[in-house]
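Weekly puzzle thread! Below is a chain. First person to post its structure in token form gets bragging rights.
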Amino acid sequence: MTAHQDDTGGLDRRRLLARAALGGATVVGATALGGIDADAAFAAPQSPLDPAITKSSFVEGRITGISGSVLEIAGSYGDRSRIRMTNATSVWKVRPTTAEVIEIGDGLYARGVEMPDGTVAADAVWVNIVNLHTTIRGIEKKRLHLAHGHHELTGNVIADTTSASYAGRAPTADLSRLRIGQSAQVLGAWRPSDDSVDVVRVSVGH
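Winning reply:
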């Protein structure tokens, strides 16, 4: 196959993606551009699994508006973007969920493919996701008191969701080995309403 044919195939693929974004047909697989779990949001960029897609686009910022399937995003550095949700978009907000949970004011990190109209058709969206270096200052049944830099932070312990990883071992629901004063890496979802974090995983002892 010649380079010209490769390019044409890529263009045809992009047209299909655009039609999928606009018409709702399932064209982009949920893992076409990589992993979709919470850790994938912080993984190093990788080549798309679909050879017809030459590169991924990444968007981060705060959701300022929602119009149908399009999210308006204000980036951290003054940039503006539009994310187009499709029925193939994977959504994470504490756990895998659906687009209905997305709200104006939420933070967002998204990965997708840029469309001819300037939107990014998302294959994965992580809502309010954070990955923080903290120190444990207090431990209660339903919350952890954390220090992140010079800021105090409340970590909400979520039943059937929050887990702990000790010294790199597999996550467990047993939080009894957490200790005040430990350094902890906290993966979770920020709550804009009160600036707390829903803790998905707390890792100690690395």
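Puzzle host: Confirmed. Bonus trivia for everyone else. Residues 3-23 form the longest helix (21 residues).
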